[in-house]
Amino acid sequence: MSRILSSLVAIFSITTLSAQTPTVEVPKLVVAITVDQLRGDYLEMFRHTFGNKGFNRLLSNGLVYSNIRYDYPHPDRASAITTLFTGAYPSYHGITGEKRYQIESDREVSSFADDRYLGNSTTEKLSPRPIRVSTIADELKIASGGQSDVYAFAPYASQALASGGHAANGSYWIEDYTGKWATSTFYRNKQPVVDQQNRSAESLTLTIGSITWRPAREIESYNAFPYTKNRYRFQHYFGAGKNESFHLFKQSPYVNSEVNNTAIKVMENSLLGKRMNPDFLAVTFYAGNYEKALDKNYSVEIQDTYYRLDQEIGRLLDAIDAAVGLKHALVYVASTGYFNEQEIIPEGMVPAGGDFYPDRSQALLNMYLMALYGREQWIKKYYDRQIYFDRKLVEERKIDFPDFQEKAAAFLVQSAGIQDVVTSHQMLQATHNEHISHLRNGYYPGISGDLMLELQPGWKVVEPQSDLQVRERSNAVIAPVIFFGSDIKPQIINRTIEATEIAPSVSYRLRIRAPNAARGEILKELY
């Protein structure tokens, strides 16, 4: 009897193990398409202008999740993309934003600043080392013993470094002042195709002066916004490589063509997806506003951007199909989940909220702390809704720092426009409520400040050194995620998924370990 039971248990164990083993083909090539500021509502509103090869092909034949959630405050292009590729929030991966305040030097620096490495075709000293955990691409390199190739192409350095990770064959971005494809000496290999592009007559450095952005379609078809004042036939000239030429170029749909051209050339010339081990290609596109749009609220430019982006997506899918076959590739599209929008308030309207002046609040807070602890400059810096204190001074005066923070927070929360103030001490406590947990996900010790300020919706931060005038909003934009290709069953899933679920799900399809800080669930539809 016991032998029969043992046999049944053994058979059951083998059957269970077989059922858990993935039966889908491991993709030969993974193509990660991140679209900075992609909005799901805009996809639907502009869909009548799209063709059949781009978004419509993905939406009709892909696994579509209606929305992605970034569970931390103020995601941006650096922190969001790092979250997508690590499966972790800034509290683990350490990239809290595009830039950070470096307290030891009292200056703002890139979150990827690294003086140990020089730049190729750039003077910036950057590397992926500030990412404190592994990425999908890192784990693929480890699993393949270094045999898988990984390339990343993006408009900005932070996007390329985050998506390429620590072990990429190459991570490239468009240099801000020359338009060349730049990288870090952290990556030891040089990609011949990229070097040839930088030296060629087609280099953006040489062609920027001949590029003028005009509508790709008849203006009458850009009719998604009933509030547009007039459908103007815009014409934007980026300049001849001077002043803000490349800055403006990166806000236009032409940047997507530049990224796509180079990525496709490398895919075709590097034999990606044509060897035993899977390869990985990461491309980042742009779908945000153009700062010089004539109608800030409801621009024709954003509709033209989406129309042209749709064409670039279609061109990339066709190139993947020609190179390896879409049935052998896993393509996924994810949004960064935010949208930089400058609202223009009609003349005479008094909106809810007001203007928040950080310098005034900082001055009042320091006066209060002087009254409590002595006439010293207790505050080192206000930066990006955070207050940094002079910790050395507090320590020298033998002041209890948590108590110091609590008193400062209690005073500051009374200021007009401030919804809440949370201390770093609260962030590091074992027990959190849901609100503090949300803030905690975006906090990293040694990088983040001592006080985190939450503004009330409708209030606008006014800083003398910044031209960006964005009013606080508590609601996030609708941001879709689409999986397409290798054994993907077409479905529309009307639920919100966590940004941290992408990396472990892609890793599962590759049959590799998830990044070492990824804690999200594998999306059940990808089993």
Overall average pLDDT = 92
User: Distance between termini?
Assistant: 37 Å
**Helix-residue proportion:** 25-40%
CATH superfamily membership of the largest domain, which one? Alkaline Phosphatase, subunit A
Uncertain segments are 1-20
- Specify the number of helices: 18
Count of domains? 2
Rg: 25 Å
CATH architecture of the largest domain: 3-Layer(aba) Sandwich
| Alpha-beta classification | alpha/beta
CATH topology of the largest domain: Alkaline Phosphatase, subunit A
The biggest beta sheet, please? 10 strands, mixed
Q: Which CATH top level class of the largest domain fits?
A: Alpha Beta
Strand proportion, as a percent range, falls in 15-25%
Strand order of the largest sheet: 5-8-7-6-11-1-12-19-2-20
Total beta-strand segments: 20
Shape: globular
Could you describe the 3D structure shown?
The protein is of the alpha/beta class and 527 residues long. It folds into two domains: 29-339 and 477-500 and 508-526, Alkaline Phosphatase, subunit A (3-Layer(aba) Sandwich), CATH 3.40.720; 355-461, Gyrase A, domain 2, CATH 3.30.1360.150. The protein has 18 helices and 20 strands. The protein has helices spanning 2-20, 40-46, 55-61, 77-86, 90-93, 136-143, 157-164, 192-199, 204-207, 245-249, 254-269, 300-323, 358-373, 391-396, 401-412, 424-427, 434-440, 502-510; strands at residues 29-36, 63-69, 99-102, 107-110, 119-120, 150-154, 170-174, 181-184, 212-213, 236-237, 279-286, 329-335, 355-356, 379-382, 386-389, 418-423, 451-455, 460-461, 481-485, 491-498. The strands form five sheets. Strands 5-8-7-6-11-1-12-19-2-20 form a ten-stranded mixed β-sheet, sandwiched between helices. A four-stranded antiparallel β-sheet has the order 14-15-17-16. Helix 4 packs parallel to helix 7 (157-164) and helix 11 (254-269) runs parallel beside helix 12. The chain is globular and about 70 Å long. The two termini are 37 Å apart. Residues 1-20 have low confidence and may be disordered.
